[in-house]
Amino acid sequence: MSKHRLHPETDVTVRRKIQLWSVVFLVLFAIGTYYFLPRFGELSDIADAIRGASWTWVAGAFALALMTHVISGYVQYHAGAGVGRFGRITLIQLAGSFISHFLPFSLGTTGLATLYYERLGMSRPRALTAALLPIIFGVATTLILAVVIMPLTVAQAINRYSSGMSDVSVVIGGLFATTVAVLAAALYWPHSRRVWRQVKSAINAIDSPLQLFRLTIGSLTLTMISALSLAAAMTAIQVHIGIASLLTLYIVTTLVGNAAPTPGGLGATEATIILGLHSFGVALPAATAATLIFRFVSFWLPIIPGGIALALLRHQGLRLL
Asked: Taking a C-beta distance cutoff of 8 angstroms, is the pair 236, 290 a contact?
């Protein structure tokens, strides 16, 4: 038996969280069983779609996914007010993507960036603030895009509904996203005051309008390049949706993936993309194939360069794990 025991109050909190997780998993399992189980016969269609994919477009999707790490390096470099070397910071972003396969909420990237800035002489509060700025601006710009883009998509959905083209997957997708959002709020609401203090501290740390401009443009560009990577993965199997629908899908996927307390939003991201594409009229096998290709090039394949980057950083004395 372990010699370390939780404090009674902490133990109660953990048990409550476990119970909440059990309820959520049961809900999600019921949705998945109802919606996906009858479609297991389409697995061969999914495999055929992947085999028939244009690997030129798949390579393009991977190149765009790798480009996001360079853009992330740009955002982080300016979040730190130009402290450090751009090449090293980009390497940290790539290594952080490797660690993110094991830690949720981008903790790996944030930890490495914080450690790097501390090594350069920053105080820990300032280093942590600089490491958190890209996340804060990423969420802010995503919400701004949502305000601009989603009304167009809602108008399209209303038009489809009025034309008799509604689909049950729209309801299921909304229920899934709502479930994840409620879960995240229930689990992390007790920490909201501390997070809000960090947000205010991060905003106050911006030195100039030029830094604010660079952070905003970099964050918007990061979102657009990531959405283009998804579009390339879809084009690989000849799946096409409108630009507004594409951006809406990516924005919703990002918000759901960030809320899901799993590494890289694993599970929640895939389900959201599949349901989103299907709600936009894409056949389920094609939607699943496009999702698997996108996640392969943006989440799984970068393990290799990410692992190499992490090894290089460890060799240079920057260790997190």
From this structure: yes
DSSP letter at 37 equals: G
pTM: predicted TM-score of the whole model, two decimal places: 0.76
Distance CA 167, CA 150 (A): 18
- Tell me which residue has tokens 């409550």: 16
Contacts of 19 (CB under 8 A, 6+ apart): none
pLDDT digits (tens, 9 = 90+) for 74-124: 999 999 888 888 989 999 988 888 887 776 556 678 888 888 898 888 888
For residue 211, what are the contacts with CB-CB under 8 A and spacing of at least 6?
A: 78, 81
Q: Where are the beta strands (DSSP E) in the chain?
A: none
User: Are 49 and 286 within 8 A, CB to CB?
Assistant: yes
- The ranges assigned to domains in the chain are 51-315
DSSP letters, 46-60, are HHHHHHTS-HHHHHH
Report d(CA 21, CA 13) in Å as an integer.
Answer: 12
Q: Check: CB of residue 78 under 8 Å from CB of residue 211.
A: yes
If you average pLDDT over residues 3-10, what whole number do you get? 40
Can you tell me the distance from the alpha carbon of 201 to that of 115, in angstroms, rounded to the nearest whole number? 19
